[in-house]
Design brief:
The chain is built from six helices and 16 strands. The radius of gyration is 18 Å and the shape is globular.
Length: 303
């Protein structure tokens, strides 16, 4: 298991895991601090906590630690762990959770799974985020079937978005899902996001009209990448989460990562830049390829 020194700047506390990285002031002037070990670099830049790993395997191990810690804390605080997943390569990185020690120590019966976005296709379709999560993660984890909250795939995109929002509202009323103290939105314990090479997150694409949407769940029928019909959480819901993690791997996404991380101005041209939890934590998990174009010597010579 890859260890790290988790520095939570917002709350002024430190959580230490074995083996340790070492904490230094930034030497490049572009980061607030740097944590370095043989296969891990951690830094704070423009208010974002960045965790950069030599490879996807190390990233997956650290992500499992992070999720397991949040699960434990959430269950202790309010008796459940409510997590929303994206699709894409992110799902394959959750595999470590289905191995020791997590498979035995996590309180899986307290987990509730949602989707940040979904393609409006049959659950058995190759493009379904539900199917991807089921094949690569859910069938290995002992999560109660009724705690897996997928969309109704028999509906149109508009109907599916309305139905999914209604489901979430019912679970808010039942107090399974908390409510943000700042705005009228659900407060998920963790939202996991992938990011595309164009900077999109969930199904919020650059300069698309739904970026300004204020409903909890909305729909699109003109996705710039297939399939065209999708439902998606909106930015107010994403930014109301207690914790958001953006997980990015691959050098093909390095330019988008650089544009988001090295600038501090939210822009609809880069939806990922608009992910800024109101009263929550935001962590970026990156492999060395995805982080390769971030400015500053802090991110060079990993390993």
């Amino acid at each position: 298991m890859v260890g790290f020194l988790w520095v939570a700047i917002r709350e002024g506390r430190k959580k230490k895991r074995e083996p340790h990285g070492l904490l230094f002031p930034s030497c490049c002037g572009s980061c607030d601090f740097i944590v370095r070990s043989m296969s891990f670099i951690g830094a704070s830049k423009n208010g974002r906590d960045l965790r950069v790993f030599e490879n996807a395997g190390d990233l997956s191990s650290s992500l499992a630690d992070y999720i397991a810690d949040l699960s434990e804390a959430s269950v202790k605080d309010h008796g459940a762990f409510v997590i929303a997943l994206s699709g894409g390569s992110l799902i394959s990185l959750l595999g470590k959770l289905c191995e020791a020690p997590y498979i035995k120590t996590a309180e899986w019966c307290k987990w509730h799974i949602f989707w940040v976005d979904e393609r409006v296709v049959s659950k058995s379709h190759a493009d379904s985020n539900y199917r991807l999560a089921k094949d690569q993660f859910l069938h290995k984890a002992p999560i109660i079937h009724s705690h897996v909250h997928s969309i109704n795939d028999s509906l149109t995109a508009e109907q599916a978005a309305e139905d999914y929002e209604f489901l979430i509202r019912q679970l808010v009323k039942a107090r399974l899902i908390s409510v943000s103290e700042s705005i009228d939105c659900p407060r998920f314990d963790l939202i996991l996001l992938d990011m595309g090479p164009d900077g999109h997150v969930a199904s919020l694409f650059p300069n698309h009209r739904v970026i300004r949407e204020e409903h909890w769940v909305t729909f699109i029928t003109d996705s710039p990448k297939p399939p065209p019909e999708r439902i998606t959480f909106t930015l107010p819901v994403i930014n109301s989460a207690a914790n958001v993690a953006i997980v990015v791997t691959g050098a093909n996404k390095a330019e988008a990562v650089q544009r988001v991380v090295d600038n501090n101005v939210p822009s609809p041209e880069l939806p990922a830049s608009m992910v800024k939890p109101i009263n929550g934590g935001l962590v970026w998990f990156l492999d060395s390829g995805a982080a390769s174009k971030i400015k500053g010597s802090c991110f060079s010579d990993l390993g």
